[in-house]
Every structure is written in structure tokens, then in C-alpha cells.
Amino acid sequence: MRLAGLRHLATLANSSVPAAEVMPARIRGRVPEAIWRRTSARLHKKPLHPLCTLRTEIASYFENRHPGVFNMHSDLSPIVTTKQCFDDLLVPVDHPSRAPTDTYYVDDDVVLRTHMTAHDVAFMQQGKTALLLCGDVYRRDTVDRTHYPVFHQVDSMRLYPPATERALIQRDLQADLTGLAYHLFGSDAKLRWVDGYFPFTSPSFELEVFWEGEWLELLGCGLLHREVLFKANVASDVNGWAFGLGLERLAMVLFQIPDIRLFWSEDERFASQFSSGTLSDRFKPFSSFPSVEKDISFWVNGNFHENDLCEIARSLGGDLVENVSLLDRFQRDGNISLCYRMVFRSMERSLTHDEINNIYYDIRESVATSLPVTLR
Ligand code: PHE
């Protein structure tokens, strides 16, 4: 297949976009190899994988509720332009989500999508009036049990016939989504709506579910902002809604999966526990292996960002890195010293001290040479 220019690739909003794995290496741009490799994993399409089960469960809920209305697209390339990901969705130019510390830039105006909403405008421009999208999204972040630089979202949009009252659209949206929450959590689930903020919807809401003693954010949604609809060439008397939901946190709660890295595990003991492909699967940890902890301390000389340290730990330690957290911070003579604790643990086996020491020294070296810090 002949590949068109990057920008052209990123603006194709349909499933004819080549799969990431057949893209030539030059397209990787500034994206780290370890992250790039994830773009071809497609966990949400892997049969019996809990993320795939959840995706199909959500699709079939919408199919039952509104037969033939929503088409699900699950093969969109994660490479999009900053225009698609941010500008068209009214994300302010100085919004933190655009910063290279938070987003993986392929080049100056092409990124790995940070949310599936990035595709909405292009689909509306093609005249689509109802969508369900599912795919992998990428965000640079800290490292812990619930954060991973790649996760999956289901995103949806629906436009209504001209002159439909906005109040009616909002009622429809909220009824569809509380219905979805009851479908996933059971009809006795305790739900509440809270006001939300997203640049591309107004008003915006979040739906929360009370689960094991706390309110969990389940999804974000709202009525599509007039200006977004304008950019999408939608007629001025047409309105609609959008919502977006992250699959990992939801799957962790529903299937009782204790660590987000497990979704990437190739261990049969993980996969074999999801044999029914339904929401009734429950995960039982196969064992808990001991952790190894390593601390790294340094003076900060410039613009240090925690996500850069996490990125280095993640690219050299892979999924053995369980947690990176600030242990200590002090100031002397106007200089700042930070100490981070890195926790290493395998989900599958015991680690050896040699193996972790090697990774640890590689991390130290990379931190010393690529970050604005002086190791102590
Ligand atoms: N894109 C938002 C996110 O990633 C979720 C969202 C989608 C909110 C659509 C409102 C409407 O958090």
C-alpha cells in the first residue's frame, strides 16, 4: 500500500486508514518506541479480552435501545492532527492537555489522540448523525495502579432532527446513559449527575456511580457546543449530544482487576479467567509477587516534569514499573531536591535483584543525561 503524507493520513476519518503496524517507522516521529508498539495491540478487538467484552456490551446496549441507529467504528488510526484533537473541539491553545508533557507528539501538528472525541467533527462533516467509536488513546502521565499511558475509550455522538428542543436532547442523553450504567452495574446501582466541564460541550455533565463506598466517575457528556457543530458544517438548527467513557477503570471495577498493567499481560493465567466473554467474569489474582523498591534523588536545574521521569522509567522498566511517586522534596539555598520512589513488581513472576539493578542504573543514566537535573 502506498502511504500518503502524515497529515493526510491523520485527516482520514474512516476505517480505510492503514493499521498502525503497517506504517513505516519514519511515521513514529517523536513517539517513544515502547508507546508506538502499543498502537498495533488493539486490545479492544481481541476476542474475550475484558476490554473487548466491555466494548461489545456497550455496543449491544445501544443496539437494543436504538436498533440500527449507532454504528460502531473500532479501527480508526490513533494518529490525528492537533486540529482534530484540540482546535476543532475548542480546547484552548494554552490548555495543559496540549503540552508535550501530557500528549505524545508525532511532529508539531500531529499527535497520538488523547481522546476519541477527536474523530467526531470529521464524521459529522461526512453527514453522520449517530456514532459509537472505540479505540486506544494516549496520555503521558504518572505511573501507578490505575494510570497507564495507553488506555481505551468509547465515545459517542448523536445529532437530532432540525429544531429539536435542547431540553429534550439532554433528557434523551441522560436517559440513555443512566440506562447504560444500570445495564453495567445492575438495576439497583446508585447514580448521580454532577456538573462537568469540557470545552466542546455545553452544558456538560459527569455521571458517577456509588461503588464499594465511593463515588466513581463513569463518564463525561454534554450537548455539543454550537461552535463545534459550526466547524462540522452542521445546520444551525441542528443540535446533538456527545459522551465519552474510559474502559480500563470501568473494567477494573466490574471484573475486579487490581492493576491496569494486567490488561497488557500475555500470561495465560490472566486470559483464561475471561473465558465467558460476559460481564459475569471475575478476576482472581493468581498470586502477588514481592516488590523491589528503588529511590532516585536529584537537584532540579530547570524545567523538570514528573511525567518525563515516569516516561523514562516506563520505557526502560516496561510493565515491571508499578509505581513512581514523590517521596521527599526539600529546598536548600534556593535549590530544589526531589526524591522519587520507584516500585518494581511483576504480575507474573519473582524479580531478581540483578535484573532490577540493571534497569535502575539505566534509568539513572538516562535521567542524568536527558532531564534538567543533577543526580545526588
Ligand atoms: N473526550 C472526553 C475525555 O476524554 C470525554 C467526553 C466526550 C466528554 C464527549 C464530553 C463529550 O475525557
Automatic annotation (TrEMBL):
Keyword Electron transport set for record: no
UniProt keywords, alphabetically: Aminoacyl-tRNA synthetase, ATP-binding, Ligase, Mitochondrion, Nucleotide-binding, Protein biosynthesis, Transit peptide
Pfam families in alphabetical order: FDX-ACB, tRNA-synt_2d
Reaction(s) the record says it catalyses: tRNA(Phe) + L-phenylalanine + ATP = L-phenylalanyl-tRNA(Phe) + AMP + diphosphate + H(+)
The protein's enzyme class: ligase
Residue ranges annotated for the Aminoacyl-transfer RNA synthetases class-II family profile domain, each copy included: 54-285
EC number: 6.1.1.20
SMART domains cross-referenced by the UniProt entry: FDX-ACB
Task performed by this protein: Is responsible for the charging of tRNA(Phe) with phenylalanine in mitochondrial translation.
Family (UniProt): Belongs to the class-II aminoacyl-tRNA synthetase family.
UniProt name for this protein: phenylalanine--tRNA ligase
